[in-house]
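Incident log, structure service

09:12 report received: a user says their structure output differs between two submissions of the same chain.
09:20 pulled the input from the user's history:
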Amino acid sequence: MGKFKVATPGGTTYGGPATYDYELEALTPLGAEIVEIDTKDENEFVKAARDCDALYAKGRSITRKMIEGLERCKIIALGSVGVDSVDIAAATTRGIPVTNVPDTFIEEVADHAMTLILATFRRLVVQDKLVREGRWKEGRPMLYKFPRLMGQTLGFVAFGHVARAVAMRARPFGVRMLAYDPYVEELVMSQYGVEPASLSEMLSQSDIVSMHAPSTPDAHHMLREEHFRQMKKTAIFINTGRGPTVHEPSLIKALEEGWIAAAGLDVVEQEPIDMTSPLLKMDNVILTAHVASASARFDPVRRRRVGAEIALALTGRWPRSCVNPAVLEKSGLRRWQPVSMERGPNS
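09:34 re-ran on a clean worker, output below:
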């Protein structure tokens, strides 16, 4: 065994075999080894991970019981933006920093969100189907029912990094933009040509609603039946954030009963999607398989960041992207960045 033990659940991740060459670029020089714990049994995992110096969280939920069993773990690292697979409260109670990679694939997700906006607005999948079925003449009359994109209102639920990147892409199309985010300053929104609004104002005025809220306890089922009823009957709904932020039965009901016109979804509440879901049979819904962040750079960049964050903690330094920064002062790790890097508790 090397100088440091980095424990991680065994098996595949993001649809491919788990390899660690990118993570080890930062870890091997420290004498750190990544050890897979190939069990689905919680008690067996606790026993095997007990003496690890770091935990690389992937492929399964990291529960309170698992975290409470860690005896000397300095960091729990995730290779994703979302951190809902880890019990953050339990890690915070134990004083263990939890890190994510919040800024490595913002552009990809923004591209995908804009793609869904355009494809859903112009009914692209249905248009493709008409051509393939020899119904060429039906395409143009269908689009006569819909306005042009210029002059429409695009509303954002949450205005973090992805939403801001989408706003930059959408602005040249001539749309008016609104955003609901009580945690973001109005001056930040105005730089992107976006007007702040209450949730009800944004929903009732928007022709396109784009969901970007993270999966947190506060945002769970953030949009429910009463919210979809506030939207225009001609509105489309886009979600490239997290499925659990939306009460899916309410969304399905809204689409079935015509409270809204269409949806473009990269995420759903249960993933993979239940093959009996009514969403699969709706011509007014475009679905993708939680792939918004995927690109050729996705895996190498995020995995190198995981290795770098673990290496920082193993060498006694604060990680760069800590999602529970309150633990850092008492963690025994030291603040080290000499200048602001515009992210994380070091900035």
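09:41 both user submissions now match this output. Likely a transient worker issue. Closing.
09:42 reviewer note: DSSP finds 13 helices and twelve strands in the chain. The domain at 4-104+296-330 is CATH 3.40.50.720 (Rossmann fold).
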